[in-house]
Protein 1
Amino acid sequence: MNLKTPGSLLIFGIAIAAGCLGLPWRATGEATAIVGNCGEFDCSELLNELQESFPEAIAEAKSQCSEPQFIGMNLWEQNNSRRVNVACWDAERDNTADYREGFFLGLFPFPGEEESFGSSWRCGDRLCEEQLSALQSTYPEEMRNHEIQCGLLAGDLNL
């Protein structure tokens, strides 16, 4: 690498400055800032733990949020179980309305509380309830997977 050309020196200088100042440096353009209300937990560590349990869903969420946007997380309780809401926020606030725009990326169970997580099946009549019971008995893993996948999107399951 020839560092004597002005362009090479400039790029090399920016790389050194970024490293020294702790600026985010990723080739993917993926959002590097993670902020939020994670209670007594560090949001970055919590996101890493969620990634271990839900690698595909977290990878998809991260791919939808790129610099200068940032990932925002909120830890809250629902039905005696903790949930983690993950969103992508714009870096800049709207100066006229003083708000920040963003969008939902997913809803996740707090690590270790996965058993109580997921959407519930809803039926409107007795025949539906019988069919639901038969499906849950015959395909327990598949039905549970649908509950979890729907829960990650904060959705409802109706038959």
Protein 2
Amino acid sequence: MKRFFTVAFVMVVGVILSLASVLVLLAATLNVELMENAQLRLLAELATLLLGVFLLVASVFLYVRLTVVVFGGKPQAPPKT
């Protein structure tokens, strides 16, 4: 039963991280679209693209890291030579 709740918790955290990233990107994109200066809009679109890549990769990394920490076993000692 404890394992089931742990799996559910990790899945919910992963979904929340992904949705939070998407919502931040949506807000940034809406702000960029309201800009009137073409040069600044282009620069902001590039910044939004970089922010999107960073946020989504970071959320996947954190989700995988959390999964490994929760479900990973104890690290094995390196073999002695």
Protein 3
Amino acid sequence: MTGEFTIGQGSATRLVTLPLMFDLVAAPLLFGWLLLRRGYAPSLRRIFCVYALLSPAIALFVAAVSLVARSAAGISG
């Protein structure tokens, strides 16, 4: 895997590079830690914790599906 994720089908296929995918996942986590301090509603902190757990899981799932689809289609790289 070259660190690229395929989005779309056919001629409308776009590649999301690994650094961009990392930033899409890491940027909200980087600033979301501020919500874990005292003074914010517990429900908001719970929502952030769920997001912090799910966003990397979803990114890994999309990468795995993309890799499987590319290997099934015989696309290398």
Protein 4
Amino acid sequence: MFENAFNSIMGSDLAAFNYTGNDRKIEGMYKGRPRNTIPDGVFDLVRDNYYSLIVGAYEIPTPFPKDSRRYPGVQFAEVKAMDGTLYTSSNQGQLAAMINSMHTNSGVNRFGGQFIIGTTSDTFISPSIYTLGASFGNSAINIVHLKSQYRMISGAMQVRFSQGWFGTTSAAYIK
């Protein structure tokens, strides 16, 4: 149920990026060995190229894209309903394998990407996961940690996810 609520919320909030729940296996690597895994969700990477104005020696970008390039299903999301800390080694290297697999895509390899981890409120992400995402230099993979919040409304559980104090997602109901 927790995964379904997360996928419902992300499907709404990331509709422009074609977010969908996933059951497709991906090839990854963990500690130099193949590690296949299945991300809970996938979404597109969209790269916009903007027009610029040349003013003297300065090139000023405009808010008008001249073209866009879409890389379908190359960014991943994972849901963990657990307490404690997630490490690169958690679940036999599942998260590390997903991050490494994302980076093998030409779009993510060139422009970077986002890996979303949705968890219960008492779960922490170890620095090793953030370090792995950042280790790809200019094409770093940004790790986004969304923590769940629950409340009961008329006998149904409302779930939403937040990132820090200000970033809150839409909500889903679990009966």
